[in-house]
Specification:
The chain is an alpha/beta fold. Helix content is 48%, strand content 16%. It is built from 18 helices and 13 strands. It has helices spanning 10-26, 38-44, 60-66, 68-85, 96-108, 128-135, 146-149, 163-172, 178-185, 201-216, 233-240, 252-258, 268-275, 288-297, 305-310, 326-335, 342-356, 361-373; strands spanning 2-7, 31-36, 49-52, 89-93, 113-116, 138-141, 158-159, 192-196, 222-227, 245-249, 261-264, 280-285, 317-320. The strands form two sheets. A seven-stranded parallel β-sheet has the order 3-2-1-4-5-6-7, sandwiched between helices. Strands 10-9-8-11-12-13 form a six-stranded parallel β-sheet, with helices on both faces.
Length: 382
């Protein structure tokens, strides 16, 4: 069968690549075309990569406005390429701003559509549920709590675990030891605190200065920020200022593998940190008006995927508009070696692993997709 996949971010590229490997196992005659990145190209063939996510990632209203013409052209190109390839199924991977448009388009043209890694409609933009119900033939979710959420809206999702577990376990085998990591990057023997400040310019500008200020208050630790390659190093340097923080780029998993604790913004990074068994504090700085509106806009009680999956607060979430570090200092001290909250958090992470499932999720999802395609297509929703 012929599969057309669309991923628009690094995480989607990673999960798309693992899914392609799983599809090749369940369907040896599978053919692929996709929008994604280097990892998907490696798994599905570089000749089948139609557009790299570096060309399609526009974050924030300003970037979207500046690149509006480019975005419209890319949407048109993608639609034309889908029709030209005539796939048996279109597999959309997260990236809802773009992919929901493709879902509607595929639906109008009678192309079967699977959504893999559902849009986070349980957190915000809940109106997208109606579009999923109307335009998506099968929804594949990666969090257990989504299995309770979507049926309330008339959608029966498929859950087979979380592919992030596969990604981490695959990488863990080749990660350097702490001694090797320290030697390679010229670090010293002090315990490491990893700073995961986000992957967007605004997130880094807003959050890294406060994270860097913590380094001044813990001279017995060495603080290291995990940089991402698509953000200029100058932005990190400006946010760090003269704080004693090291910058390392494109080695987040290596850093977490050697860290004793972490300060994280939010999103997938909170789950990655927990799966590496690294106690963490979530800090997120935003406008005061966003904090006031949070109860009315955000549909869930937590921003951390750790807390959402556990159904309680394990990881402390510090959401604020200012730069006061008093609460973050207290929480970080509590999760460092010897801290009062450290062991309880590590126990919570063990429970989290049991909740989200073990390795092999990507292959299981792929098998379910192939089995689904063998069934007659459902009548189109009007």
């Amino acid at each position: 069968m012929k599969y057309y996949l669309i991923a628009g971010e690094p995480s989607g590229d990673l999960h798309g690549a693992n899914l392609i490997e799983g599809l090749k196992l369940s369907d040896p005659q599978a053919g692929f075309r996709f929008w994604g990145g280097d990892k998907m190209a490696e798994a599905g063939g570089a000749e089948n990569l139609r557009k790299h996510y570096r060309e399609t990632s526009f974050f924030g209203i300003v970037q979207v406005i500046r690149n509006y013409g480019t975005i419209r052209r890319q949407i048109r190109e993608c639609k034309e390429d889908i029709l030209a390839y005539a796939p048996d199924v279109l597999i959309l991977i997260d990236y809802p701003g773009f992919n929901m448009r493709m879902a509607e388009f595929a639906h109008r043209h009678g192309i079967r559509t699977f959504y893999y890694i559902a849009p986070k409609v349980w957190a915000w933009r809940e109106w997208r549920v109606r579009s999923i119900q109307k335009y998506v033939d099968r929804l594949f979710v990666i969090f257990p709590f989504e299995c309770k959420y979507f049926p309330k809206h008339g959608i029966e999702p498929v859950f087979e675990g979380n592919p992030l577990v596969d990604a981490i376990e695959h990488r863990r085998k080749s990660l350097p030891s702490r001694e090797e990591f320290v030697a390679e990057h010229g670090l010293d023997e002090r315990p490491i605190v990893a700073l995961l400040a986000g992957s967007r310019r605004g997130e880094i500008s807003d959050n890294l200065p406060m994270m860097a200020d913590l380094a001044r208050q813990f001279p017995g630790m060495q603080f290291v920020v995990a940089g991402v390659p698509w953000i200029d190093r100058a932005l990190y340097a400006k946010a760090i200022g003269d704080a004693p923080v090291r910058y390392l780029c494109e080695c987040t998993y290596e850093l977490l593998h050697s860290a004793s604790a972490a300060i994280v913004t939010s999103g997938t990074a909170t789950l990655e940190t927990a799966l590496f068994g690294v106690p963490e504090v979530v800090v997120y700085r935003t406008l005061w008006i966003n904090i006031k509106l949070r109860p009315y806009v955000l549909k869930v009680p937590y921003v951390s995927l750790v807390n959402l999956n556990l159904g309680r607060e394990s990881v402390r979430e510090i959401i604020q508009s200012g730069y006061d570090t008093a609460e973050a200092v207290a929480e970080l001290r509590a999760i460092l070696p010897g801290g009062g909250k450290r062991q309880r958090m590590l126990d919570d992470f063990d429970e989290l692993r049991r909740i989200i499932g073990g390795p092999g999720a990507s292959d299981r999802f792929a098998r379910r997709m192939v089995d689904e395609l063998k069934k007659p297509a459902k009548p189109a929703n009007k």
